[in-house]
Amino acid sequence: MLRASFKQFAHRGYSTAAKSLKIGLIPGDGIGREVIPAGKLVLDTLGPKHGLKFDFIDLEAGWKTFQETGKALPDETVDILKNDCQGALFGAVQSPTTKVEGYSSPIVALRKKLGLYANVRPVKSVEGADDRHVDMVIVRENTEDLYIKTERTYIDEKTGTRVAEAIKRISETATRNIATIALDIALQRKQVYGKATLTVTHKSNVLSQSDGLFREICKQVYDSNQEKYGSIGYNEQIVDSMVYRMFREPECFDVVVAPNLYGDILSDGAAALVGSLGVVPSANVGFDFVIGEPCHGSAPDIAGKGISNPIATIRSTALMLEFMGHAKAAQDIHKAVDANLREAQIKTPDLGGKSSTKQVTEDILSRL
Description:
GO biological process, one term: tricarboxylic acid cycle
GO molecular function, one term: magnesium ion binding
Oligomer: single chain
EC number: 1.1.1.87
Helix content: 25-40%
Strand content: 15-25%
Organism: Lachancea mirantina
Distance between the termini: 17 Å
Family: Belongs to the isocitrate and isopropylmalate dehydrogenases family.
Structural class: alpha/beta
Radius of gyration: 20 Å
Shape: globular
């Protein structure tokens, strides 16, 4: 998807030449427990071809874990990821729709505890398939905005009714980090496609200070590094018109960078352009760690039926490998998945098929 890898892991004592890699497996809830094994099978199948050996550590997090232990993200899970693993796969999390005392999303907490400041979500149609041509990467700031989860509810003295407030935080440091990785991804895509464009998405016409800062710093990073990024096109788009244009003219967008909330909404919406959330991957990327994570949720309505789509997880496994420096192995996965989507009649119900999770996984494994 990104066609190149980042060299971010050297100061962790990690080398892209390493032969044995420890990968944490965090299935979470619902269909996460059905699709994460597909990622594990892909790594086991792919490893020998590329001289890699994968050791897996099963870890717990999620709503089920909270119900059993009182913690959605056990300290042991975080400690093992920090000290023993080079990467991880995270399945899905089921969160209650109403407030439950003591519970908060484990994946949001993991992003903060491990410094995973960027959520990279490629959305790409398959050449030769029936989908419209789409080939964009949505780069979502991953640690702040409304997701800092600082809220309060109080009684308005004038009306005597409740008011709920949430703080939206945009910092110069986090924005500089996300703008840099987005521009780096655009630069890599230019090397492959011959051109690239960054589109900064914001709502600074209303949120002049918070989104205004995001817009200002992104432009500053671009302008102050013209020797490196000057060949990349630079655009801005108000988020509401971005949604309209993304569905009307998806071919106009290449790399899109956005604050946390907008990036979440845009990337989930963009999945409709390529058939299903079940095929869209993501990588939570930090300076020294990466977690592959499918974009779909826990899907309790189909959990346990064996029909969840494993492709988003398999593609997320490829993204994890790319950011760990194993681009060739990742490309083998992308090619196998693309071949399944383009050629095979073996598809899960979300793509209009009747196949099971196991059948789709086996077809992709056979293409590896």
